[in-house]
Amino acid sequence: MDFAEQFGTEEQCRIRFKKIREKEGINCKSCSGSEHYWLKGKQTYQCKDCGFRTSLRSGTIMEASKLPFQYWFICLHLMTGTKKDISAHQMKRELGHKRYEPIWAMMHKIRKAMGRRDSRYLLSGQVEVDEGFFETLVPAEQKDEPRKRGRGSQKQTMVMVFAESEEVENSKRKEGRPSRRCRYFKMLVCADMSAETAKQAIISCVTETATKLTDGYSTYRKLAKEMSGFECEVIASKEAHIKLPWVHSAIGNLKRILNGIFHHTRAEYLQNYIDEFCYKLNRRYFGHALFQRALITLTLN
């Protein structure tokens, strides 16, 4: 009801987006200037230095899109208002749009912007590190190949998962709960589980001074000799949820969302779905304020 009151018309959405964009700052594509005039009659910005004009959508994820501002606002509202997720087909029905492809593209642009927003931060403190394998559609060029099993299967895409956590005092810890409390998460699709690939993924997601808690997989044992802050331990499968509780919870929750809502996911789009999942998971206590904060993502390029 609050959303309908604030953004019930196209003009209300346009005015709000203009305020957010001006707050975030506008850079001229011609001279990189940051000071602009607003030409009300043309509905564009004009650079004070060179006179180059920038439209309201230019330089944002809405650039070249013909969908109304209100579509973008409603889409972001529904994506952030659901704890799980919403499919593009359902979004199309909610918006009353005829074609599926523009709605699908709009949602993926928002997911990519969410990923870019989260990429500004690195995890610190104690960080659980593990890998998960997610079922994706077999690429067309591999459909005629004999099916492999396990880690090398054509139907499996590997994702490295990082969970920042902190120790909980025994007096505050509830019985049966993990000894560490989760904070923030990051996930990154990786081509393989080689030491170099894992090392680059860790560098891009975790601070150098963080304590990295992992299992005894050979890749991690090798990295423990090269990188600081590694604590490797051989963990039995029955104890994995005790030693590394939060990475396994995140992997399990994401798998349920992908299987239950999207059913079939292509490997090339898996990172987009992961970015949306982590964006909402890292802001899980924002409540209805999440939509207001997520509006910033519409101004990203």
3D architecture notes:
The protein is an alpha/beta fold and 301 residues long. A hairpin with a 4-residue loop joins strand 1 and strand 2. It is globular and about 70 Å long. The protein is built from eleven helices and eight strands. The strands form two sheets. A five-stranded mixed sheet has the order 6-5-4-7-8, with helices on both faces. The protein has a three-stranded antiparallel sheet with strand order 1-2-3, with no helix packed on it. Helices cover 40% and strands 18% of the residues.
Key structural traits:
5-stranded mixed β-sheet, 40% helix, 301 residues, 3-stranded antiparallel β-sheet, alpha/beta
Spatially, the strands of the biggest sheet line up as 6-5-4-7-8
The best one-word shape is globular
- Gyration radius (Cα, Å) is 22 Å
One letter per element, helices H and strands E, the order comes to HHEEEHHHEEEHEHEHHHH
Mean pLDDT: 91
Biggest sheet record: 5 strands, mixed
Please state the oligomeric state of the protein chains shown: single chain
The amount of beta strand, in percent, is 15-25%
In short:
The chain is α/β, with parallel strands linked by helices and 301 residues long. The protein is 40% helix and 18% strand.
Helices and strands in order, then pairings?
Elements: H1 2-6, H2 10-24, E1 36-39, E2 44-47, E3 53-55, H3 69-81, H4 88-95, H5 101-118, E4 126-135, E5 156-167, E6 180-190, H6 195-205, E7 211-215, H7 218-226, E8 230-233, H8 240-243, H9 245-262, H10 270-282, H11 289-294
Parallel strand pairs: 4-7, 7-8
Antiparallel strand pairs: 1-2, 2-3, 4-5, 5-6
